[in-house]
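Data availability (excerpt). The following record was deposited with the supplementary files.
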Amino acid sequence: MRTTIFWTKSAAGFLPAIAIAIFALLGGCGRAGNSPTDTASQASATPSKRVAGGDPPVYSYEVVHTYPHDPAAYTQGLIFANGFFYESTGLNGASSLRKVDVATGRVLQKVDVSPRYFAEGLTLFQGKLYQLTWQAQKGFVYDLNSFAMEKEFPYQGEGWGLTHDAQYLILSDGSNQIRFIDSADFTVKRVISVVNRGVPLYELNELEYIKGEIYSNIWHDDRIVRIDPATGEILGWVDLRGILPPEEHTDRENVLNGIAYDEVGDRLFVTGKRWPKVFEIRLKGRD
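Predicted structure:
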């Protein structure tokens, strides 16, 4: 038996709730039952495919470049488009949508979200910016250039991370399920469940669709999981432990959260809540 501490989001902060969970002791780091097994060293630039019957590959990283990031930005969603970062920041009374200069971290454009909402994931789909809120079961659609809000859209449950493929919006809600949503009428078209060695992989958070895979942050974890969008199968792990020096972690809740991909330049960026830096990284691992 293992006692696992889970943390729940709230507008006033994050309050621990203790839950008893019985898992097989599976080794590795992180939460019980959700750990990779090894770290490999050969560089890879193609989507990972797990060997039949084997464990998914584990990727380490190298930092290509470091960019400044607003240390007050409680990052909930991050994307790269047209040479800029677009960022959704959270917390009631501090939520916003931003356009950010990559090189300097300077906020070029910003719209504040109503204080009654806690903003979450963000994506750019078919020329529009889509932003989630945490518990309001409501999202917002913005004009990319003016940031004028064009409409609201509904969804059931919580909103955590948001990305898209060629056809659908892709939403995480803090569970192990990922929903594919039609942007025309916001109906759920299908759902995948992410399971690691028979155990649901909970707290899937900020999402990014990269080369036919879904990359997902895991809340309170310094790893990213790579997911097959067709099946929910785990294709790989990215171990980002140590990327932000310990002395720059100012609070337990200021965790890794923010994945952006430059499709044209084939660049991968990561950051976290109230992190002073955005890191451009290159994955190192095995296929």
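Summary of structural features: Residues 40-284 form a domain with the Neuraminidase fold (CATH 2.120.10.30).
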